[in-house]
Amino acid sequence: MTENDFVPKTLSSDVSDGLVTWKAPSNIALVKYWGKLPDQIPANASVSFTLQVSATTTTLTYRKLEKESKDFSFDIFLDDKPKPDFAPKIQTFLSRIEKYLPFLKTYHLEIRTTNSFPHSSGIASSASGMAALALCLMEIEKAKNPEITKLYFDRKASFLARLGSGSACRSIDGELVQWGKHKGLNSGTDLYGIPYPHKTHPVFTDYQDTILLVHQGQKQVSSTVGHALMEGHIYADQRFRQAAHNLERLKQIFEEGDLKSFIEVVESEALTLHAMMMTSIPYFVLMKPNTLRIIEHIWEFRKRTGLHPCFTLDAGANVHLLYPNEERKEILAFIKDELLDFCEEGKYIEDQIGQGATKLA
Ligand code: PMV
């Protein structure tokens, strides 16, 4: 498919109003997307686990205006309180997607959103938030053209979410999602996320993710700034080649359920993401001392027990601890006994791989 396939051809004009609610999950990348080209095209393909507990629920109420407004007409609420500081981001998003939803200025949009994870827990809500909003907006298109298929609906929701925040395109489907064209694997597209198209071993279907909240609060570097740091970065080309190679390695790892190699690829990806930020100009250290303490404990625990917890990181200090469900009991005990001291106020989120977004109303 191309961008033009997402420009609607026929739309009924007699849809006056409606209310829809979608819940979209967050996702955690195993092979990271870091660096982009214009129009939110990723510099390399990535793959992620869709989460289940960490999610955004958005209710969109739309009402036809008497006449098309000059600018977008919307109100945005977080936890039922007006959130004017979200408006510029929504405004940019709506203007990027207007070409694909050409009716947007003919409605007033009331957007009410809540996150399942605590606000400013250091967990980015942009992926789940943009995905939930894109799904809600797609419901207007569906009301105007009930003929569209579920496949088109999901792909276009992912395509639109990508224009809001790149990684948001991986928050529509479950359980493993690939975004970006990979020539060697002959799979994926840069335009939207797709359910991982290669074989996966059953061990990955109920993988666990305990998110250890090391540092709550605003991220030090926004992802917009972070991606821009890859432009002209001295290691950029090598990094993009490494990501492609890691995705290729994961194909066999996913197929065979090879946990030892899985750990190697996933931890290396996390550390490389941070290495890119430490070696850019300007440079940043986004880990905290407790991030490193947790990593050391994980390595030591793995050596001692032969079990398979592994870490990954976002562009921040929190640690995602990934492990197979069959090791849950031992690893949860390890987390409680040895890791919670390193979390701010002892906070963590017990999450796991999820099935993707759901429509609630
Ligand atoms: O979607 P963005 O622009 O916020 O970028 C996300 C980048 C990482 O979370 C660090 C990696 C990824 O692939 O999700």
Could you describe the 3D structure shown?
The chain is of the alpha+beta class. The chain folds into 2 domains: 15-196, 2-Layer Sandwich (Ribosomal Protein S5, domain 2), CATH 3.30.230.10; 206-352, GHMP kinase, C-terminal domain (Alpha-Beta Plaits). It has 8 helices and 14 strands. The chain has helices at residues 87-97, 126-144, 150-164, 223-228, 236-256, 259-278, 289-305, 328-339; strands at 17-31, 36-37, 41-42, 46-64, 73-78, 81-82, 107-115, 176-179, 193-195, 208-212, 310-313, 319-323, 348-352, 358-359. Strands 1, 4, 5, 6, 7, 8, 9 and 14 form an 8-stranded mixed sheet that branches. Strands 11-12-10-13 form a 4-stranded antiparallel sheet. A two-stranded antiparallel ribbon has the order 2-3. Strand 5 (73-78) and strand 6 form a beta hairpin. Helix 2 crosses helix 3. The radius of gyration is 20 Å and the shape is globular. The relative contact order is 0.17. The mean pLDDT is 96. Residues 29, 32-34, 46, 126-127, 165-167, 223, 273, 314-315 line the site of (3R)-3-hydroxy-3-methyl-5-(phosphonooxy)pentanoic acid. (3R)-3-hydroxy-3-methyl-5-(phosphonooxy)pentanoic acid binds next to helix 2.
